[in-house]
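Saturday, quiet lab. Running sequence design on the structure tokens for the scaffold JK sent over.
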């Protein structure tokens, strides 16, 4: 079975567009395709993603794992583990490293809960 060539028919709505207009149309359509993926990434996370963020902030694998586990236990993972560390450090006027170490040693979690008004809400 051979497909009928209907290219000229399908391109009629694009025929009168300039090169710049075609490029703009391309980027508009690309954005429509990508927006749901960006939205999904923005609204969702996982323990492995959060551990990865903490590793890039300079924490060891064991420290990152402990912080992420503490965030999961307290329903705070959706806030972002790196964000928890950062906000604690900012609020308590301490270094990011010290804030993260405190959380990895299972201390100062009540302060974090207070900062975020508890859990996912």
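Result came back. Writing it out in full:
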């Amino acid at each position: 079975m051979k497909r009928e060539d209907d290219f000229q028919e399908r391109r009629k709505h694009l025929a009168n567009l300039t090169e710049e207009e075609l490029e703009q149309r391309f980027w508009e359509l690309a954005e429509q395709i990508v927006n749901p993926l960006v939205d999904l990434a923005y609204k969702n996370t996982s323990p492995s993603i959060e551990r990865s963020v903490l590793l890039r902030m300079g924490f060891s694998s064991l420290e990152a794992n402990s912080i992420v586990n503490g965030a999961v236990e307290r329903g705070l993972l959706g806030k972002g583990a790196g964000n928890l560390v950062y906000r604690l450090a900012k609020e308590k006027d301490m270094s990011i490293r010290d804030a993260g170490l405190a959380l990895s040693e299972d201390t100062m979690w009540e302060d974090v809960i207070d900062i975020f008004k508890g859990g996912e809400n």
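Notes for JK: The mean pLDDT is 91. The first helix runs from residue 7 to 10. Ask whether to fix the surface positions before the next round.
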